[in-house]
Amino acid sequence: MRSPSGPPVRQDEPASGLGPTRSPVHASSGTRLGTARPRQEGPTDLRLVPPALAAWGTAALVLDAHPAWAFGLVTGCVVIGCLVAVGLLPSARRARRARVASWPRASAAALLLCVAAAAASAGLHGADLRRGPVPGLAREYATVTAEVELSSDPRLTRPKVRGDHVAPTAVLIDADVLRVQEAGGTAVTTRAPVLVIVDAAPPGRVADGRGRSPWLGLLPSTRLRVSARLAPAMTGGDRVAAVLRVRDQGEPEVVGEPSGPQRFAGRLRAGLREATDGLPADPRALLPGLVVGDTSRITPELEEAFKETDLTHTLAVSGANFTILLALLLGPPGLAQHVERRGLAPRLGISLRGTAVLGGVLSLGFVIVCRPDPSVVRAAACGAVALLALATGRRRSMIPALATAVLLLVLYDPWLARSYGFLLSVVATGALLTLAPRWSAGLRRRGVPPRLAEALGAAAAAQALCAPIVAVLSARVSLVAVPCNLLAEFAIAPATVLGFAALATAPVAMPVAEALAWCAHWPAGWIARIARAGAALPGGGVDWPGSWAGAALLLAATLVVVLVGRRLLGHPWWCAACGLLLVLAVVQPPPLTRAVTGWPPPGWRLVMCDVGQGDAMVLAAGEGTGVVVDAGPDPQLVDHCLRSLGISRIPLVVLTHFHADHVAGLPGVLRGRAVGAIETTGFEEPADQAAFVRRLAAVRRIPVTRAAAGEQRRTGELSWQVVWPPPSPPPDSPSWTPPGAPPGVLPVRPPAPEGPNDASVAMLVRTAGLRLLLLGDLEPPAQRALARSPAAEALEGVDVLKVAHHGSAYQDPGLIRRAAPRLALISCGEDNSYGHPAPGTVAALRAGGAAVLRTDRDGALAVAGGGGELRVARD
Questions:
Q1: What's the whole-model pTM score?
Q2: Cis omega before residue 837 (within 30°)?
Q3: What number of other Cβ atoms are within 10 A of residue 660's Cβ?
Q4: Cα 289 → chain centroid
């Protein structure tokens, strides 16, 4: 390049004393690809940050405030703000001198006016929950007939174990009540947001031929007429005026069809689900979530894996989805200012204005297909800010843009001010705009390749600022979040792009959509494998106080790690040593863990896992091998127990009966382990839990057998005999002698079990000279029958007794006296609502000479020894 009247000068040198010239926005044709530089920037403009934060805090506080208090706050801020603003008008002669001095006063006026606007918006939104007849009827738990308009997609609650049963699932829908009529009253027109809870269909009734409730197929904007009971909102601070509880009795009564855009979005989403029907389980569940936030197929097990690795953001619509779509349109962010942008728009010859219009249409379609609820609007706004920052290379100037987005979104929907999702999005975007560039630059100065440095800096910055918030929600800190997010990052873009292509082509060419979905299942499956592998690591996460004090502590700890890490980066050997220690802490090799913690103790024979209010035990059957008796109520807890013991092969899983506190954790037992067979009781009640077990076994192709008294098995040094329940007698036989009974035993007909507890599988186990009696949840009638059974003599004087039914008060004293154990183990949950174990049961066991240990106080318990020697270790 030449100056107008002089020799050639370099672009980065001053010309004619006028300071450095700016590099052109577009490279010349002779310039090497990618050499054009972004525009230079001045200092970061932070003037909009205080008003945005003030509006955010005001909205969060005023939503619950009394209208008079909100009105007073608005009035005061407006008056004071106007007075400050009037003071900003200097005379013409003093205008030039006052220009600089007026900026602090202008910022104060803007802050006060933003507070006033936020208070007004939050006051109006909060008043919407308190006006009209719905809140009053909810306080009276009135039964009403209501016309409602749905504002969200229906979703199923996750099954939860409550005691010995699984709470039935329900359908949840956000809606607005448009008309409400109490029994015998007059219909009143209103508009109040409610949460509709549709109780599950009665067990055994197929709702729509596929086992799904017809309520799950409803689209937003559909109008229904329902007969239901109103109730107050479940927790304070909800954005609903009441809860509308509906009994699912069949097809919902539709009085208004959904809008055209929602029908179109519904067809697209249904087409994507159909296109993914033939994929393997994990991609079939994950791909709709990656593309449009449809998580209806995500299993609790997979969802937990994503939580453990901090990959949950991939299961919901986020700014990343929108960023990827716009990047496809505009090209790679690093080339956005260059002639060689490489995006679809420049390749198709679309002008800049046309590209802007096309981007707006894409944004609108994204919001419609992913549902125009606050979370999607927030994702689109924050995603646009993050992309614009990366695309223009002006990260500093994007801080005001982020503040503007926060301000406008909070004014539009003040409930976002209380949303953890909104907080995480803003914090993550702020981290990408502030910390990530500095951290990636520091890594590049130390020799890290540029692309890897940028990816590592972005992941580390987002994790550092978001981890304290996640800790408040989950009371846990993931140690594998950064590497898992880095590994998953390579697959998110292709999965999202191919998934959106399948979404768009499904209505017109399903075979093409299926082919695109098949291509997308590879990256989607990779993300799922990363989540499962990270969650499976024994030290992948640590428990942390789930409070804001815990968040502050984690933030302080992160700051210390960052400061120390900066110094360590200059010492490669120290970095390698710290990295090795972190890997060992996460992987926790069994020999090292045993040497450090002493768990599990050498020569252990039985471990009673600490699974809360439930049962799960492991019998040692060789190196890495164990027989599992019951699975507890939580897959995560039993899986953690088995991993700490190094169990990878399970020849047999014995499920004593089908109560949820014994079988709901079965997915955790099967996770990543070779299982030979599952043995259960013949009394298949509760029916839903029995079907759950058989369904899991069928998926893994594991045979299921029934246990009966007299059965004997052996594996290695471990042998056991089933002592209860007795085999089912022939139906026409009035009396019956059990097989194996000694001569002289009178024919008897065993009593029919009164419930699942009395049908529990009880086992007498022999291992290394020790005798262990495992009683399941037997009640006194079955215990008395067992004490009179042919196996009664073998039960005398056992070494270890697993006390029946978590040590409840219902025990047969005769069986306890006959067993006369040296050690009694009780599995129960801390502060459980059943009062387990009963003080009388504990006293009776101790009076018989037994040492009593319980998992609620002692944690997991390991029995070791042999040849009559008995030792117990606590985890």
A1: 0.79
A2: yes
A3: 23
A4: 13
